[in-house]
Design brief:
The chain is α/β, with parallel strands linked by helices and 368 residues long. The chain has two domains: 203 residues, Alpha-Beta Barrel (TIM Barrel), CATH 3.20.20; 97 residues, Lyase, Ornithine Decarboxylase, Chain A, domain 1, CATH 2.40.37.10. The strands form five sheets. Strands 3-4-5-6-7-8-9 form a seven-stranded parallel sheet.
Length: 368
């Protein structure tokens, strides 16, 4: 789909690139199954379109964070297995069961609640068990794992364990000793529990080698074109292209200030472009005097503060033929990478994508 003239701010999503990235994950992790992580509206890119593409690529297992996300995904993927990372409580059990959503059980309390729901219904209920191997976030800590291991036959009798999983804390750094520590802890933990498929790796872990793949991997940012290991070249295809239109051009003399608080002054006679994109759209204020855009393949700096709806660029070095009101400025894409944007915003690519505002028009392109 092409961009409409009235969309002065646009996020183009290359669905073909999502397909290619899924295939790259499959090649790296094979023969492990590759699930699709589509939480947070598929990292801000639109869960309905992304789920369709992944289903076409023969992905039949998905992960979401919230129950509400599972509710939204179920009609889009009626036959898929859907894991809900937040787990289950007595209050959410009925809806999880009704929609065939599998909770990722993060504690003994959640295991007991899900087991009680299964006994009440006199049927085994599917679920995943999450073990904490060192991140100290969600998952059973070592103290609870030992209790579960000692009484697994009873505690898990009514639960059909489809997956035992954990999560790597430092997979973005292949040289971190934490990766090996968690791998060894996960293997040791699995040995104490009844046999079940296992999963340790999300996007970064996929790139650590087959030893980290186990039976399933769970890519998220890799599917959406981010670099899971930023110190290495990105092997994944760019998916998101964020652009805004030039609203106004002006020539200014040397020494003129730009934007609120006059944080930037021109060092030469300059051409400035004011563009329809601001922090209400996800162009973060930290990018003031740090970020870049691109016009006709020429990178241009953000000058002055980012406003709610506007940003100003110094376009003096752009060929005059490429400058006009309505001309498109790329902020994420082929010239300015997602990682470039994130570095300028002093954040991570994950936050960049999930912060892109809802007023930005989404355009879905089937080609890579």
């Amino acid at each position: 789909m092409t961009r409409n003239d009235h969309d002065i701010v646009c996020l183009s999503v290359r669905l073909g690139a999502v397909r290619e990235n899924y295939d790259i994950c499959r090649q790296l992790a094979g023969p492990a199954e590759v699930a699709g992580v589509v939480k947070a509206d598929a990292y801000g890119l639109g869960m309905p379109a992304i789920a369709r593409v992944l289903l076409e690529a023969r992905c039949d297992t998905f992960f979401v964070a919230r129950l509400s996300e599972g509710v939204a995904l179920r009609p889009l993927a009626p036959h898929a297995r859907i894991f809900v990372l937040d787990g289950a409580t007595a209050a959410t059990a009925s809806q999880l069961i009704a929609l065939r959503l599998n909770p990722v059980l993060n504690s003994l309390a959640q295991i007991d609640a899900w087991s009680a729901a299964a006994r009440e219904r006199r049927t085994a209920l599917e679920a995943a068990i999450h073990l904490d191997t060192g991140m100290n976030r969600l998952g059973l800590p070592a103290s609870e794992l030992s209790v579960l291991a000692a009484d697994a036959a009873k505690r898990l009798k009514a639960i059909d364990v489809k997956l035992v999983m954990s999560h790597l804390a430092c997979a973005d750094d292949p040289n971190s000793p934490m990766n090996t520590v968690q791998l060894e802890r996960f293997r040791a933990a699995l040995a104490t529990l009844p046999p079940a498929p296992a999963s340790l790796s999300s996007s970064g872990g996929i790139m650590l080698g087959r030893a980290f793949a186990f039976d399933m991997v769970r890519p998220g940012i890799a599917l959406y074109g981010g670099n899971p290991q930023p110190k290495q070249s990105n092997i994944f295809k760019a998916v998101a292209v964020l652009s805004g239109s030039i609203l106004q051009l002006r020539r200014v003399d040397k020494g003129e200030c730009v934007g609120y608080a006059a944080t930037y002054r021109t060092e030469r006679p300059s051409t400035l472009a004011t563009v329809a994109l601001g922090y209400a759209d996800g162009l973060m204020r930290a990018m003031a005097n740090r970020g870049v855009g691109a016009i006709a393949g020429v990178r241009v700096p953000v000058v002055g503060r980012v406003s709610m709806d506007l940003v100003t660029l110094d376009v003096t070095d752009v060929p005059v033929a490429a400058l006009a009101p309505g001309a498109e400025v790329e902020f994420i894409g082929d010239t300015v990478s997602l990682e470039d944007f994130a570095a300028a915003a002093q954040t991570a690519s994950y936050e960049v994508l999930t912060s892109l505002g809802t007023r930005i028009a989404r355009r879905y392109i089937e080609a890579p």
